[in-house]
């Protein structure tokens, strides 16, 4: 079974490719988290977790959901993480999560995909994003091949920088950067509610036809990147930056 969390579609694309090759089912972790659903899931023996990388680890809301959710009949677990640059030492924390759930840890695969974190970085234009996805395809295929034969992933890089970023920097990043206070809308907001619908933490509500953000935010960028009128900004940091979500690339 494939457990997929996705902010702006990269993980969803990878999960669909894995599911098609393995002829397996995808569980939408976004929907589970949004519904506060921690009910047991009958997974089969092999579990593949597909997520983006947030602050050099899997998103906290994903690890929290996995910690609380029983994976019935699961024996082995692979982690597939996409990122704009690197995953740091995320494998250490994925291994710990696997051990916590008494599962055989089969490794962590890093797949470079288009950047979406416009609260800090620039997202690529569509043509550049398509090139990044094209370059990722062989890694995705190698990842699938390992899972198919129940093989361990190759051990990812693990240097001092990686350990520092996934270790001390991760909690600092969440404490000081992962906040919704800078989100705002301009006059082009049409009150469509897409941001409310796409928020996995139910952190957005419409008041007088305009979105209001609460204090529970994971910085998935779904609200700002899927806004049909690009009415949402993250303070001044997102102004002028292209919005990115995978579907706009029109890749089958």
UniProtKB/TrEMBL annotation:
Name the domain of life: Bacteria
Protein name in the entry: Ferredoxin
- The scientific name of the source species is Blautia obeum A2-162
Q: Tell me the NCBIfam families matching this sequence.
A: ferrodoxin_EFR1
Report whether Phosphoprotein shows up as a keyword of the record: no
Q: Which PANTHER family match?
A: PHOTOSYSTEM I IRON-SULFUR CENTER, PHOTOSYSTEM I IRON-SULFUR CENTER-RELATED
Q: Which UniProt keywords apply?
A: 4Fe-4S, Iron, Iron-sulfur, Metal-binding
Q: Which GO terms describe its molecular function?
A: 4 iron, 4 sulfur cluster binding; metal ion binding
């Amino acid at each position: 079974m494939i457990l997929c969390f996705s902010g702006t579609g990269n993980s969803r694309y990878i999960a669909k490719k894995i599911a098609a090759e393995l002829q397996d089912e995808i569980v939408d972790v976004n929907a589970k988290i949004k519904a506060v659903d921690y009910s047991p899931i009958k997974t089969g023996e092999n579990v593949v977790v597909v997520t983006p990388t947030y602050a050099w680890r899997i998103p906290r809301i994903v690890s929290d959901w996995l910690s609380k959710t029983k994976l019935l009949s699961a024996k082995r677990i692979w982690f597939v993480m996409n990122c704009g640059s690197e995953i740091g030492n995320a494998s250490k924390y994925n291994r710990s999560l696997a051990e916590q759930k008494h599962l055989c840890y089969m490794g962590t695969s890093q797949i470079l995909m288009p950047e979406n974190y416009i609260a800090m970085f620039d997202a690529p234009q569509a043509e550049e994003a398509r090139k990044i996805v094209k370059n990722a395809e062989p890694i995705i295929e190698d990842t699938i091949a390992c899972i198919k034969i129940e093989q361990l992933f190759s051990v990812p890089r693990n240097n001092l920088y990686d350990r520092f970023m996934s270790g001390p920097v991760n909690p600092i990043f969440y404490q000081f950067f992962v906040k919704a206070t800078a989100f705002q809308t301009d006059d082009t907001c049409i009150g469509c509610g897409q941001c409310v619908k796409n928020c996995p933490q139910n952190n957005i509500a419409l008041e007088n036809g305009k979105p209001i953000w609460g204090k529970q935010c994971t910085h998935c960028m779904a609200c700002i990147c899927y806004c049909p009128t690009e009415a949402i900004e993250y303070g001044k940091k997102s102004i002028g930056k292209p919005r990115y979500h995978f579907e706009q690339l029109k890749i089958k």
